[in-house]
User: Fold Ammonium transporter from Salvia divinorum.
Amino acid sequence: MATGTPDYSFLPANLIPDDANPAWMSKGDNAWQLTAATMVGLQSIPGLVILYGSIVKKKWAVNSAFMALYAFAAVLICWVGWGYQMSFGNKFAPFLNKIDDALDHHVLLKQTFGGYKFPNATMLYFQFVFAAITLILIAGALLGRMSFYAWMAFVPLWLTFSYTIGAASIWSPNGWLAKKGLIDYSGGYVIHLSSGVAGFTAAYWVGPRETKDRERFPPNNILLMLAGAGLLWMGWTGFNGGDPYMASIDASLAVLNTHVCAATSLLTWLLLDIIFFEKPSVIGATQGMITGLVCITPAAGVVQGWAAIIMGILSGSIPWFTMMVLHKKVWLLRQVDDTMAVFHTHAVAGTLGGLLTGFFANPRLCHLFYLVDNYEHYIGLAYGIHNGRAGAGFKQMGIQILGVVYIATLNVVVTSIICNLIKLVIPLRMSEEQLRLGDEAVHGEEAYALWGDGEKFERSVHNSVYGEDQELGAMQNKV
Assistant:
């Protein structure tokens, strides 16, 4: 036997350790975590790529989809390089962690933090897809006018100086808000409130779309939009079901609550559209679906099923009110051109979810999720009052409110600084010609090549990819 190799000859074959499956690893937990991460990744590509590319005007379909695709790839490289360690590494400051590990197999194959039964490589992949979708959600506020080159710079800068701070503060075991007992089951604060506030702030600095686009911006393909929305909805199974970091009973509850809240919210939004506008809007129903998914995210596995229904009713009505009524009356909301209304669907719905979590969080379910018996934290106000611990319930509400203020302030300040720094080097907005022409001017490509329009692809720098040649182009021109 080679030197240094353990001698297991004295053990029965069924007891010999498997180096590829160490004793601390659960194959089931690892498989579920990788599956959940891939489901979240599918929410972005192709989910949001399809949703963005189809819900905008035809002239912006390529640009909108490409902003999402680029963000996904850029975030992965930054996340592996430094983002993951800044978010979940060894403590450097109350709101930031150190970059002190080379992510080779000696680190990636070790058991991850918290004693969860899978390796660092799995945790890195799982956390990456959450970081990526946050940037893609921000893009939704900027569709139809932000310079693609400015977006290329914005993604790594915002990930580095905003997302990592929010994740380190709330999700890292060393985070100051984590230690205070903030409940953010799966990203109501770190992802949705962050993206909603950052998107709205960036939209302010980039400026509005072209006047014609702002006045009329019809989707170019509603059926395709629904396909993207469906991927987003079903992918949320992994989004919330993966956050216990194990294939547990709490994961099952989180998945069920997620879909119950989303369906309730969709139906609530639909009924409000029918009552007040006398038409059942499919775009409105999609918005209601999204607000329900966002609202339940910070609470998914720590609230009862009946609470998920109440949250769905509120998430289908309060963001509807802010979007359809308040938006037309509040000066600031009217001034900022938020293309996909991410302020309402993510900032408002995320804040609502965070506060309702502080009200409905069940201490028994919190114990299943956090695996601690902490009687100072993790009790919703409703249960605090019911159990004679109103003080602890009010304290939890205060912590949830503190989290909203912290994340909102962080993203307004950091996003503003990033946008103004980029503006010194790269224009934030497209040129007037690009705004007028859209994809053809920005990328030299168009989303739909109808008969007679196909020759426009001759101007693509990647013309050969499509198998076009000059003879075919000449024939099309004659036709």
